[in-house]
Specification:
This protein is α/β, with parallel strands linked by helices. The strands form two sheets. A five-stranded mixed sheet has the order 5-4-3-7-6. Strands 1-2 form a two-stranded parallel sheet. Helix 1 runs antiparallel to helix 2. The longest helix is centred in the N-terminal third of the chain and has 30 residues. It starts with a strand and ends with a strand.
Length: 153
Amino acid sequence: MAEAITREGLAQLKSELEELEGEGRRTIAQRILVARELGDLSENAEYHAAKEDQAHLETKIARLTERLRNATVVESDADATVVTFGATVNVTEVSSGRSSSYTIVGATEADLKTGRLSAESPVAKALIGAAPGDTVAVSTPSGTRQFKVDSLG
């Protein structure tokens, strides 16, 4: 199943994978080598911890490789007049008057602390297709929240 991702997200994914396949594997291999030199492997906690870390690293590499294989870069339309995937949108929460800026990204790129909102989130789903000046309602566990779209970009 294809996963929508921004060009920036794809570059970050490739970079992380390169780091794990290179430096990450070298570091684990060195730990295993040092632990082997400590003697009896059956009772060698350092060796077993390093082997376990190696298994976790390889699992993470496999997951990232699979994500990369399934990634489809979706470009945002700079001339869009409504909120789209990859767009940055400035909104104001109606009840609190608090302004926020979100960039709509793929689920695996989401990071709310940096304003990167998953396209699969209820807020993003409500915002996609909205134009500046529109107000959208989002159902949340604590009740309905309304956001006014201030601008794009």
